[in-house]
Amino acid sequence: MSEMTYRDALNLALKEEMRHDPSVFVLGEDVALYEGSFKVTRGLLAEFGEERVKDTPISENTIIGVSIGAAMGGLRPVAELMTVNFALLAMDQIVNHMTKIRYMFGGQTHLPMTIRMPGGGGSQLGAQHSQSLETFFMHCPGMRVLYPATPADAKGLLKSAIRDNNPVIFLEHELLYNSKGEVPEDPEFLVPIGQAEVKRAGEQVTIVGYGRMTILALQAAEELAREGVSCEVVDLRSLAPLDTETILASVRKTGRAVVVEECWRTCGLGAEISSIIFEKCFDVLRAPVRRVSGLDVPMPYSRKIEKICIPQAETIKQAIRDVLSGGY
Amino acid sequence: MQTRLRMVLPDQELIKLYEKMFLSREFEERCAEQYAKGHITGFLHLYSGQEAVAVGATAGLHKDDYILSAYREHAQAIVRGADPRRVMAELFGKSTGICKGKGGSMHLFDPSLNFMGGYAIVGGQFPISVGLAFSARYRGEDRIAACFFGDGAVNQGTFHESLNWAQLWQLPVLFICENNFYGIGTEVHRSSALASIHKRTCGYDIPSEKVDGMDVIAVYKAVKYAAEKVRESGHPYFIEATTYRFRGHSMADPAKYRSAAEHDVWKARDPLPNFANQLLEEGIATREQLDGIEAGCARLVDESVQFAEESPWPEDSAVWEDIYV
Known about the structure:
The complex is a heterodimer of chains A (328) and B (325).
Chain A: E1 2-5, H1 6-20, E2 24-28, H2 44-48, E3 53-55, H3 60-72, E4 76-80, H4 91-98, H5 101-104, E5 114-119, H6 134-138, E6 144-146, H7 151-163, E7 168-173, E8 180-183, E9 197-200, E10 205-209, H8 211-225, E11 231-235, E12 238-240, H9 244-254, E13 257-264, H10 269-281, E14 290-294, H11 303-306, H12 313-325
Parallel strand pairs in A: 2-3, 2-4, 4-5, 5-7, 6-7, 10-11, 10-13, 13-14
Antiparallel strand pairs in A: 1-8, 6-12, 9-11
Chain B: H1 11-36, H2 51-59, E1 66-69, H3 74-80, H4 84-92, E2 115-118, H5 125-138, E3 145-150, H6 157-168, E4 173-179, E5 182-183, E6 186-187, H7 188-191, E7 208-212, H8 216-233, E8 237-242, H9 260-267, H10 271-281, H11 287-310
Parallel strand pairs in B: 1-2, 1-3, 3-4, 4-8, 7-8
Antiparallel strand pairs in B: 5-6
C-alpha cells in the first residue's frame, strides 16, 4: 500500500493499463500536451507517445463517436470528456449509438470503451459547470456507470473499466482529486464492477452514498458516533449495475435508510434506491427511507447559496437524526 | 460521353455489376410488396433508383475496407455480400435475421463482410467511421473506412466535426454522399446554403469531386480512384454522387413534393435499363444472358421471402440478450 491522491491513483491506473495492453489509448480535449484539465493524464504523452495519447478538437459528440468506431475496430479507447456537463453534447453518440450498437446488431460486436468525466458541484463554477448527471446515465441500459469515492477504488475501478468489454461511464468528483488514501500497489489490483462496499459498519441506520457523497456520509457517521449513533455506510461504487443485495442486506440489519445523492432529487437515483428498499424490505423498515439530495435548482454561483444546494455532512446528520427519532 | 465498358473492367465483372443492381432492385420492390402485406413493419426506406451508387462504389473498394451507412442500406449490405435471405428475415423480424431480428430494416450489420452498420440517427455514422479508420491506422491495417450518407446529413454537427477530425488526424476515410436531392420532403437547396455538397469540404481542405450517381461505371471509377488515393495517402477524400430515389423517403411517403416531370427525367436515367443497353450495345452480354440473370435474381428473392416467412420468431428471452458482453 502507498498513500496517494485520487488524481494520482487514476493516473497510475491509466499508466498501468496502457503498459498492460497496447490496444488501450487515451483521447480527449487537452489530455496530451496540456496533460488534462485536472492533470489526470500527466506524463502519459511522454511515456506513450502521440499515437496513444491524443488531443482532440472540442467536438464532444465526435470524441465519443470516434471512440465507438475505434472500439469496434479492436481498440480500447479511454476518452476524457473535460467535464460531465459536456457529456450532454455527446448524448447522441452515448445514448443513441454506444448503448444500442451491441443490441441492435444482434450481439455481433461489442464496445470495450471507457468515458471518464470529472463532475459534481461545490467549486463555485456556476450553473453550467456544476452538474451531477449520474442519473441520466443510470437510466439508460447498455452501459456501466461507476463513481469511486476513494483513491483505492478510483484506481481499482478504472482498471476494471478499461478491461471490461462493455461501455463504461466513469465519473470522477472534482473535489476529490486532491483527497488522499492508501492504494494497493499490485498492478493486478482490480475493484469488481457491480459491487458496493460497506465502508463503515453500524447498527442503527444505513447511509447509502457514492462518490463525494460517500465521503460526506462517512464524516456524518463519524460525528454521530460521538453522540452514540451507530451508522452503516454503503458506498455504491457502481451505479450501474446497482448492487441491490448489499444495500438490502444492510437495511435488513439496520431497519432504516438514508440515501444521499448529489444529483437533483426529482427522478434521481435516491428515488430509485428508495423504491427498491420499499419494494424489497418494507417489512423490516422502522422508518420511511429518507433522501438527502441536491436541490432541484440550477446551481447558483455565490458560495453562500451554492452550499445549500448540495448535500453537506450537517444535512446528512439531520436526516439521520430525523429517521431515528421519527421526526420525518 | 460514355466510356467503352471493356476499357474499365472485364466482361464477367461488368455483368456482375448488372446482376447486383438488378438483385438490389428486385429485393427492394419485393420489400414494398411484403410491406403492403403486413409482413414487413416499422420504417422501410427503399433504395430503388440509387443502385448504381452502392454497386459502383462497393466494386471500387477492397473486401477489407469498412463500409458504414445510414438507414437506406439494404442494397449496400446485399451488394457487399450479405445473404438476401437473412436480410429479408431481419425485415420480417425473425430470429434467423442478420441481426437476430433485433435491428430491422435500418440496422443491418455483418462484421464478417466489414459491413459495420446501418445507423438511423442522421449523421451518426460519421464519427464512427472516423474511429474505425483510426483503429485501422493504429493497428497497421491496410484498410480504409467508406462512409455513405445522404444529402440530408450534411448539416448535422457530426458531419463537420468528422470532416475536420479526419483531416486533422490524417485518417483514411472515404466520404460518399448519396445526393438524392431530398431529405424526406425538403429539397437540398432549402436545407443547405451551399447546395453543391462536394464544395463544402473546402473548409477542411479535403479533396472532393462530384460524380453521376446514375452511372455505375462512373461511380466505380471515381470510388476506385478515390479509395486508392485514400489508401496510399492515408488522408480523407470526398465524393458526391448525384442520384434519385424512385420512391418516397419511406413507405409512408407518397412523395407529393416532387413533380411528375422531375420524376420522369430521372426515370429516363434509370441505371438498370441504361446499363443493360450498354452491355448489349457493346456485345458484352446477350439479351438471353441478361434474362437468365434477372430470373436468377427473382428466384433468389423468392427464396428470401420464403425463408423469412418460414423462419421462427425470436424467443421472448432474447430481449435480455446482447445488451452486455
